[in-house]
Structure formats: structure tokens, C-alpha cells
Amino acid sequence: MGKKVAVVLAGCGVYDGSEIHESSAVLVHLSREGAQAEVYAPDVDQMHVVDHTKGQPTQEKRNVLVESARIARGNIKDLAKLDVNGLDALIIPGGFGVAKNLSTWATQGKNCIISKEVEDVLKAFHATKKPIGLCCISPVLAAKIFPGCELTVGHDTECEKWPYAKTAETMKELGCKHVNKHVTEIHVDMKNKLVTTSAFMCNAPIHEIYDGIGKMVKEVVRLA
């Protein structure tokens, strides 16, 4: 039997949910590794809904679980029902939904609150020494919950290629060790069993983002 890996989504769409290309890459690479993905999302309202043609919020209201089901092709469960005992690993793709729907990082940065369901799930995998894979912005969740852990969100110096590099500095302020890595590379914190890669934190060709996520998934499955 292949490993069973929980994939936690935060909606559908880069600006208000899970980044669709990252989520798809995680699912494709898990399939390639012979692992079985179990997709979860919290049954809560999104912080807001963004019109992706304009990058502007609208007056709409949407539910994180309902929207995440689009990516999971309907095969999804309420995060509240996740049982760590039946699972071998956890992966959380990025997208602004992580910072808006799974936490309040988008509005409060290092002073953010992480959703209790999300925090409980992360702590459960950590306590049972099961690997956790995080990409793009989702490493901030670990930065907030596991002081002293080692992570990457790419580079810590802002430039055209790395427009979100200040995230690394904020994570350092939380007491984490940030390790600069290229988009096709991963960082592995063996003590905490955390595997991270930068994905769309980098302005890079999509195949490089896909390859970096592939290395992250491969290592998570290997550690499981």
C-alpha cells in the first residue's frame, strides 16, 4: 500500500485560496510517488473573495471547503474530521488563502492567529513525528507554531525575482532559521521533519516551480 498523505487546501485561486498550479503539482507528484492523497479543507467562510481578473475584492461570500472541492474534483473532507492516526504525512500548498483563510498572516504578519483546526493538525503530525511539506507562503504556519524550526520561502533579499522576500525576514523574527534556496531546491529540517520549497514566492518559469514541488513531495513521501 502506498503512503496516505493529507493535503490541506485553503480555497481555490491564488489571491483568496490555494494556488491552483501548486495544488495540482502536489497531487500529480503524490500520484507519481505511488502515494494516496486525502484532501481536506476547513468548513469556514473565506476572508473575502477576489476577482482574479482585476485583483480586487468583491462583495461575494464563499466557503473554503466548497471552493477547495473544485481542485479536489469533489473528493474532499472537512478538516475537522482529519485523523492523524490513519495518515502518514501532511502537505499544505501555498496561495494567499493560507494567509487569509488558514491564518491571519495577510493582515497581522508575525502577530497572526492560526486557525485552531489548522494548528491542531500541524501539531498532531509534528507530535507523531510524521513529515510535513510546505510550499510558497505556507511555511509561515510552521514558523508561527514551531519556534526554532528551519524553513525556506526562497530568498531573504527582495528583488524582481523574489518580490516577497520580506516574508523570510519576518519568519526570522519569529525565531526560525531561514535558509536561502533556489526555486527548484528544497530545505529539509530533519529534527522537525519539515520539507519546504519556495514555489510562487519566486518569479520563475512554471516548470521550475513544478520541479521544486516535485522534490518536496518526493522527500515527504520518503520520510513518511
Give a structural overview.
This is GAL3A protein. The protein is an alpha/beta fold and 224 residues long. Helices cover 33% and strands 17% of the residues. It has one domain (4-223): Class I glutamine amidotransferase (GATase) domain (Rossmann fold), CATH 3.40.50. It has eight helices and eleven strands. The strands form three sheets. A seven-stranded mixed sheet has the order 5-2-1-6-7-11-10. A hairpin with a 4-residue loop joins β3 and β4. α1 packs across α8. The longest helix has 18 residues, at 206-223. The protein is globular. The two termini are 13 Å apart. The model has no long low-confidence stretch (mean pLDDT 97).
CATH superfamily: Class I glutamine amidotransferase (GATase) domain
* Succession of helices and strands: EHEEEHEEHHHEHEHEEEH
What would you say the CATH architecture is?
3-Layer(aba) Sandwich
CATH classification, class level: Alpha Beta
Strand residue percentage: 15-25%
When the domains are counted, the total is 1
Q: Between the first and last Cα atoms, what is the distance in angstroms? A: 13 Å
Number of helices: 8
Low-pLDDT runs of 5+ residues are none
Strand order of the largest sheet: 5-2-1-6-7-11-10
Count of distinct strands: 11
Protein name: GAL3A protein
InterPro entries: Class_I_gatase-like
